[in-house]
Specification:
single chain, 256 residues, six-stranded mixed β-sheet, 10 helices, 6 strands
Length: 256
């Protein structure tokens, strides 16, 4: 299944549970109206006005290239809380968004941040459960796309190393640049999880994983993975007593 792009417009009013206002686009068509996700048929139903009459159309997800929808109320603030490591403060808002904007599970932004929120709140099992609710609908979400790196962190924290290893290998050989970059980042995390903060483990995580992402994945699809790698590499350099190198990497990450 191809990747679906979801664009956020400025937030307006709270939206009803059953549909969201927005525009849906395929290669040959574009419709603006109330969009509802149809889980059973894996399609979007769009209700829109044609003259003075309300009509509806259905679009299979395989045909949809872009959704342009109103940004959920509270989304930006919740995401910022997650990024600052205060996931507990974002769980309620993100849960509501995931429930109401069900089509977002296909591009995983809200679902991903909800998984990350549970991880930062030290609830890896709940993070895993949320991720699986998406993966059960779309198997590829386990190894590529926005959700995968957060899902991998849940697996890492739960000690599901064999399962994680298989997914990381699949991502690395998929041909998807972002998936490959994220796979290298979590490879470094796995090295540190197994070898701890020893000098050897820190250097191995740097040379075998984080710095490879920094040097080899400078293209735009890999931007977030590169930022993650820079921040992790900076932490490693701090522990190795190389504070100047650590600050250099953090400064680069802030500019991306």
């Amino acid at each position: 299944m191809k990747r679906l792009m979801i664009l956020f417009a400025a937030a307006s009013v709270a939206l009803p549970l059953w549909a969201v206002q927005g525009t849906i686009r395929t290669a040959t068509d574009s419709k603006k109206g109330d969009i509802k996700w149809q889980s059973r048929s894996k399609s979007y139903a769009v209700s829109f006005k044609k003259g003075n009459t309300m009509v509806s159309a259905e679009y299979p997800i395989a045909d949809v290239e872009e959704l342009d929808i109103d940004k959920p109320v509270g989304y930006d603030k919740a995401v910022e809380s997650v990024r600052r490591g205060n996931g507990a403060a974002a769980i309620g808002v993100l849960t509501k968004i995931v429930q109401e904007y069900k089509m977002l599970v296909w591009d995983k932004p809200a679902g991903r941040y909800l998984v990350e929120a549970y991880i930062t709140a030290n609830n890896a099992q709940k993070a895993y459960d949320v991720a699986m609710s998406v993966i059960n609908e779309d198997k590829t979400a386990a190894w590529k796309g926005d959700l995968a790196p957060a899902y991998w962190q849940a697996l890492l924290k739960l000690g599901k190393m064999q399962q994680l290893e298989g997914l990381v290998k699949k991502a690395a050989t998929s041909g998807d640049r972002a998936a490959s970059a994220n796979a290298l980042v979590v490879r470094g995390d796995m090295i540190l999880a197994s070898e701890g903060a020893s000098q050897e483990g820190l250097r191995k995580a740097l040379t075998d994983a984080y710095l490879r992402v920094v040097l080899m994945y400078a293209d735009e699809p890999c931007r977030e993975a590169r930022i993650d790698a820079m921040q992790r590499a900076a932490d490693c350099f701090d522990k190795l007593g190389q504070a100047a190198r650590a600050e250099q990497l953090r400064s680069q990450a802030r500019k991306l």
